[in-house]
Inverse folding.
């Protein structure tokens, strides 16, 4: 298969080879991609059988159109009466404002041209699950128009009649010609000035062999009515010209704006471009066809571009960024002509499809076509003039000098910025030397809002006042209310949020694309329709509490600032002595600062009066998700930002104090290093550390201590362990004698067979717990020696012992160091991983997975976010982890993580990719050799365990080449359950069904799936775990101020119970529970059991048979005694067991 | 409730017992304990110990004393040890040539097995005979768990992890002197 082929290619190349290949012609990447691209393009090809059917349909439709009778010079009244008497009840799709006493006539004459345009015409159409649309262009003959028809909607109105008449005739004629179809209207790419006819196949009630039904092809046909090229003078329709006369909003009386250019009139760019575009349908098809003829791979590159855009939710539609297949293809054509600063060619005709695609992406990523400059080209066939010109128009621009159209007229500022961001990310991905990014570039879709954006906000359209600000001038500039309000919201957000956001997207949800031919226009009730805002946040700025404005001296801008912010604006003196205008915000645990700002601004600028506030109608799931991240029972915890790590910092301070003391202790050997290995010390523990909260399962923070090296450590493992114990006792004695620290020694069973391990538990005066284990330079050697000396029967057991030692003593330390650095680098990692841990726990999974593994899963979406960007909210982070888990085919794919500290984003800017600093900065990153080594380890692992029975998840990184350090102890049913739960959750997200109820469901375990459920209860552990109780007032904190006399009295017995059961019934029953009983009400919890189906099988009686067997009649066989096991389980649980529910 | 009629399997006496505890939360069921006289190189131990497979969870010395007190009066138990997983592997021995006899504190028993040692051979014989009688009589004696269960059990377990410093010190001292002695003699 392709991936295997690719892997062997990588194996034969060294990093240097690759570098050379990359620098010369990018052959390496092209070759890998070529195989994948060929396969992809092949898969996307439309079936030949479908094409045959559809060609027949198109011929018949063409024939029908030719049968439409001509009519001429109808007055508006004639038109009205014609449609009134027609039995088809068709309405003329006149755009707003509809004609009123026009001094022109309406006619239908046979079109001067009928042709196929769009991707079907160009043969770049791809198979799409939802079906494809074929665009058929019909050109109205020019004699139907006067030269002045470009003003005041005249041409549009004439066309609307033409379309209405054609639709009416099609209804009748299609029946006569056995083409059973359903006809509706549709705005071409959401342009309300440009209605078209959508033709879809239906199965007739009384079928006839003559009927031509094409439902199965999933094709529909869109009949677009255009004008002849050059019908109107292009110069008069330039984007800055006004073509709609309108009454002055200030003087509704007799004064009219003149028709001459000397008066500054509001430009009508959308109107002008729409009109001009309608003259160019076949013209651009010819241009693209020529490009296709001269460039062999043009077609394939178009397919790649189309797919890339589609996965990112882009199309030519107003509501989908206004940049689709057509715009991509035109851009490529312009870049084949030139496109550089000196008209130099960006793309060459001999390029492969990959090179054409990458070149175009690179151009989008690196050239600013909005503010810094624009691309100017000509569509005149035979001419080549294409140049990047400095000084942009502050709107995205690819200007065709020939037709005077800005190709990007439907692309808004914000969608252009989003497009550029995607292009930049894709370019980084295409330049990746280590990972294969094919999937994230072409195959993964990233248009599900709650996965793509950090923050998604919906506003019901019905709540927005249509009248306010949408006056006559706005109407001619924006054509539709939707265009206007989106633009207004963008302006408010851009100005109000500044660098708190990195991307703003605005669109209308569930936009109605087609409408009945019995209606003049689309729309109707806006109930149930929302305007959606998707934001990407800047993690370093989004929770900032101050919005800084201009200095006090800057009066003009100061006034503007105060005008914009009104009551929020204030003057403040800052530390550096400056006095500045600013706004101060309050942080909160339930809501991001950005959301508070948006609510304030929308109420201020979008509400029509003070009584109705828009903010109360805003819908966002962010607070819902944040509410699942537990709060510490510390003062003012509800007023802290979700990214606040204050509670973790207190713990770290206490740790630093302890370190100082440990380093200064007078011991036979001095302490050389004190290494933390604890989730709470790296801000990844589900519960935040709270002093004296001893019921928190993570209360004791593991610390690994190394003494200065000595040759005196015993050369025998158990005696070595005893010597360590004696050091720990000595440390405890000195601590207790000289400081106010308390402590005790516990035995530790985390390394099997080594029964002599002891740990020093320290309770600090600040209320925190630390648990010290000692590592010496001899440990590892001795464990390895034990394996060497063991017989073949003992070896696997000893290997397991060694692995557990490595986990506990070395791996945990490395993991901590790496995660700590990354948690500091990604402000949203800590709350995200904690939310994910909450989810794991509510699904009864956390008892089965080491925290290190859970953290590695969570960091995946931060260090390797493609095709998204690094998450900057708990919602996007959490949902992407679930999505990753739902897609990870762990049987066949390893997870290989680059855990080096990421270089900052500015240096990842592709413009500097050739600079040495870029390469230098990447030198700590995972290199090809390591990547390949880990891959090989995975292959080896799977060779011995192809069905993933023994080991499921393989997670390799620089810290762990083996890939199995944290995952060798997970069982197949548990692994499968994690994946299937993630799939259920992701399905919900993909369907866009997230709300209060469904999010609650995400965090509710599906207990019906288990063979039995034991409801258990212990004492209430909420306050002794340091969790803020929901209903306690913010200023009342019932935390403890001292340790309990017996620390074991506050431990959760349910965890010990489940540990014992899992140990005794290993291989027969899998027990699950919530590790955090304290997150439930009144100490309640559940213990669930899942029987291993193979245990019921009969087997010969052996003394070492698995636990609890009963004899099978008259044989020497036994079988698992389920009934008795249940009795034992319940008996053992004693007072903890409340109720047992059997399946 | 039906009982299995098998009374012996591979030299083990099969004793069905009935739990006293669950109080109607789950249907009652018989549990089968497999018992045999212990055979070991250690003759002193061998003659007065019973080797038990599948002893019910939560059964400690108190439970056993109560059971034998009721069904084999006079069979006084000296000790009860449960097996520890893979206890036959001795890390000390595997990492040093000097160790010849150092044992882990757990007997070499397979998983899920335990050893009851009686005060003398007579007591052991008595216990064994009584069990055999019980099996023959087809009665299903009640197995009452007399050791702490539920929260008390786990609190005790947690407490048992906290080591007594003086005792730990003594054991370290003993072990280290032994280690040093071995090292010295090896030179």
């Amino acid at each position: 298969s392709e991936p295997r082929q690719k892997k062997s290619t990588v194996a034969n190349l060294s990093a240097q080879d690759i570098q050379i290949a990359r620098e010369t012609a990018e052959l390496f990447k092209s070759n890998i991609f070529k195989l994948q691209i060929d396969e992809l393009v092949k898969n996307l090809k439309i079936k030949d059988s479908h094409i045959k059917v559809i060609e027949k349909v198109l011929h018949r439709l063409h024939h029908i159109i030719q049968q439409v009778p001509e009519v001429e010079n109808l007055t508006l009244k004639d038109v009205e009466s014609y449609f009134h008497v027609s039995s088809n009840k068709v309405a003329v799709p006149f755009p707003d404002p509809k004609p009123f006493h026009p001094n022109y006539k309406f006619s239908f004459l046979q079109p001067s041209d009928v042709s196929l345009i769009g991707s079907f015409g160009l043969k770049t159409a791809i198979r799409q699950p939802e079906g494809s649309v074929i665009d058929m262009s019909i050109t109205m003959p020019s004699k139907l128009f006067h030269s002045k028809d470009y003003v005041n909607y005249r041409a549009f109105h004439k066309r609307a009649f033409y379309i209405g008449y054609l639709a009416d005739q099609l209804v009748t004629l299609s029946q006569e010609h056995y083409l059973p179809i359903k006809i509706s209207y549709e705005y071409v790419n959401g342009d309300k000035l440009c209605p078209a006819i959508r033709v879809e196949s239906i199965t007739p009630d009384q079928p006839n062999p003559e009927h031509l039904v094409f439902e199965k092809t999933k094709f529909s046909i869109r009949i677009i009515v255009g004008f002849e090229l050059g019908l109107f003078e292009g110069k008069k329709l330039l984007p800055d010209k006004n073509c709609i006369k309108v009454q002055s909003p200030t003087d509704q009386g007799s004064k009219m704006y003149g028709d001459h250019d000397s008066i500054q009139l509001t430009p009508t760019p959308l109107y002008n471009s729409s009109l001009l575009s309608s003259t160019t349908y076949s013209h651009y098809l010819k241009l693209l066809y020529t490009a296709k003829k001269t460039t062999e791979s043009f077609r394939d590159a178009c397919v790649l571009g189309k797919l890339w855009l589609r996965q990112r939710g882009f199309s030519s539609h107003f509501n989908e960024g206004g940049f689709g297949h057509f715009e991509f293809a035109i851009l490529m054509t312009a870049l084949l002509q030139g496109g550089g600063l000196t008209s130099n060619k960006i793309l060459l005709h001999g390029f492969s499809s990959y090179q054409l695609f990458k070149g175009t992406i690179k151009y989008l990523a690196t050239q600013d076509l909005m503010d810094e400059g624009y691309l100017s080209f000509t569509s005149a066939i035979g001419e080549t003039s294409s140049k990047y010109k400095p000084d942009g128009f502050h709107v995205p621009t690819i200007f065709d000098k020939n037709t005077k159209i800005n190709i990007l007229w439907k692309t808004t500022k914000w969608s252009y910025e989003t497009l550029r961001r995607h292009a930049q990310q894709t370019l980084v991905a295409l330049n990746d030397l280590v990972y294969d990014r094919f999937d994230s570039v072409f195959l993964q879709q990233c248009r599900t809002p709650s996965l793509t954006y950090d923050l998604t906000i919906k506003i019901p359209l019905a709540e927005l006042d249509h009248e306010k600000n949408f006056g006559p001038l706005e109407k001619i500039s924006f054509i539709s209310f939707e265009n206007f309000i989106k633009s207004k919201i963008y302006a408010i957000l851009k100005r109000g949020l500044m660098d708190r956001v990195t991307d703003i997207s605005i669109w209308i949800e569930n936009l109605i694309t087609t409408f009945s031919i019995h209606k003049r226009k689309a729309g109707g009730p806006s109930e149930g329709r929302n305007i959606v805002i998707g934001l990407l946040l800047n993690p370093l700025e989004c929770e900032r509490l101050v919005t800084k404005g201009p200095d006090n001296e800057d009066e003009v801008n100061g006034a503007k600032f105060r005008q914009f912010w009104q009551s929020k604006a204030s003057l403040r003196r800052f530390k550096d002595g400056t006095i500045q205008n600013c706004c101060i915000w309050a942080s909160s645990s339930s809501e991001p600062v950005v959301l508070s700002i948006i609510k304030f601004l929308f109420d201020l600028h979008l509400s029509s009066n003070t009584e109705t506030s828009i903010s109360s109608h805003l819908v966002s799931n962010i607070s819902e998700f944040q509410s699942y991240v537990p709060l510490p029972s510390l003062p003012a915890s509800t007023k802290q930002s979700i990214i606040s790590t204050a509670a973790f910092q207190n713990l770290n301070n206490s740790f630093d104090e302890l370190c100082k003391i440990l380093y200064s202790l007078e011991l036979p050997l001095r302490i050389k290093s004190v290494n933390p290995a604890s989730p709470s010390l790296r801000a990844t523990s589900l519960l935040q550390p709270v002093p004296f909260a001893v019921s928190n399962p993570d209360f004791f923070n593991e610390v690994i201590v190394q003494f200065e090296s000595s040759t005196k450590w015993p050369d025998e493992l158990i005696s070595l362990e005893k010597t360590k114990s004696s050091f720990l006792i000595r440390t405890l004695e000195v601590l207790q004698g000289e400081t106010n620290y308390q402590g005790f020694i516990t035995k530790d069973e985390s390394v099997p067979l080594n029964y002599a391990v002891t740990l020093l538990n320290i309770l600090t005066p600040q209320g925190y717990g630390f648990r010290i284990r000692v590592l010496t330079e001899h440990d590892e050697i001795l464990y390895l020696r034990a394996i060497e000396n063991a017989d073949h029967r003992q070896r696997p057991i000893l290997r397991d012992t060694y692995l557990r030692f490595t986990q506990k003593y070395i791996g945990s330390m490395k993991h901590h160091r790496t995660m700590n650095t990354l948690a500091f680098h990604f402000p949203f990692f800590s709350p995200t991983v904690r939310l994910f841990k909450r989810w794991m726990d509510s699904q009864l999974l956390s008892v089965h997975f080491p925290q290190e593994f859970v953290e590695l899963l969570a960091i995946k979406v931060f260090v390797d976010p493609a095709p998204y960007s690094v998450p900057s909210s708990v919602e996007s982070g959490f949902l992407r982890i679930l999505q990753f888990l739902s897609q990870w085919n762990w049987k066949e794919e390893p997870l290989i993580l680059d855990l080096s500290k990421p270089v900052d984003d500015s240096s990842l800017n592709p413009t500097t990719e050739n600079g040495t600093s870029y390469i230098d900065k990447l030198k700590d990153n995972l290199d090809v050799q390591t990547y390949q080594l880990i891959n090989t380890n995975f292959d080896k692992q799977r060779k011995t365990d192809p069905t993933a029975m023994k080991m499921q998840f393989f997670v390799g990184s620089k810290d762990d080449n083996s890939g199995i350090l944290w995952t060798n102890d997970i069982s197949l049913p548990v692994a499968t359950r994690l994946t299937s739960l993630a799939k259920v959750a992701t399905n919900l997200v993909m369907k866009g069904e997230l709300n209060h109820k469904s999010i609650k469901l995400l965090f509710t375990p599906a207990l019906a799936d288990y063979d039995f459920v034991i409801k258990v209860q212990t004492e209430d552990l909420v306050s002794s775990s340091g969790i803020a109780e929901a209903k306690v007032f913010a200023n009342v904190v019932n935390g403890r101020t001292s340790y309990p006399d017996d620390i074991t009295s506050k431990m959760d017995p349910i965890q010990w119970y489940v540990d014992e059961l899992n140990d005794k019934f290993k291989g027969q029953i899998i027990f699950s529970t919530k590790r955090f009983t304290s997150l439930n009400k009144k100490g309640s919890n559940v213990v669930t059991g899942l029987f291993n189906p193979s245990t019921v099988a009969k087997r010969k009686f052996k003394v070492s048979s698995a636990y609890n067997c009963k004899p099978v009649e008259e044989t020497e066989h036994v079988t698992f005694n389920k009934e008795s096991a249940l009795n034992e389980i319940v008996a053992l649980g004693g007072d903890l067991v409340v109720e047992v529910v059997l399946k | 409730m039906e009982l299995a009629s098998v009374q012996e399997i591979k030299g083990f006496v099969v004793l069905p017992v009935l739990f006293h505890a669950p109080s109607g939360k789950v249907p009652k069921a018989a549990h089968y304990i497999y018992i045999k006289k212990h055979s070991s190189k250690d003759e002193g131990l061998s003659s007065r110990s019973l080797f038990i497979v599948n002893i019910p969870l939560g059964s400690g010395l108190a439970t056993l004393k109560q059971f034998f007190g009721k069904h084999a009066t006079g069979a006084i138990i000296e000790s009860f040890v449960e097996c520890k997983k893979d206890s036959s592997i001795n890390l000390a021995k595997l990492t040093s040539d000097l160790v010849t006899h150092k044992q882990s504190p757990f007997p070499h028993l397979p998983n899920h097995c335990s050893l009851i040692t009686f005060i003398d051979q007579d007591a052991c014989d008595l216990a064994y005979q009584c069990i055999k009688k019980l099996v023959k009589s087809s009665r299903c004696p009640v197995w009452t768990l007399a050791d702490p269960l539920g929260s008390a059990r786990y609190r005790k377990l947690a407490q048992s992890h906290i080591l007594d410093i003086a005792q730990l010190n003594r054991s370290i001292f003993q072990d280290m002197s032994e280690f040093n002695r071995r090292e010295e003699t090896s030179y």
In short: The longest strand of chain A covers residues 132-139. Chain A has six domains: 44-264, 280-447, 449-542, 646-800, 826-1004, 1006-1142. The domain at 1006-1142 of chain A is CATH 3.30.70.3030 (Alpha-Beta Plaits). The first helix of chain A runs from residue 2 to 11.
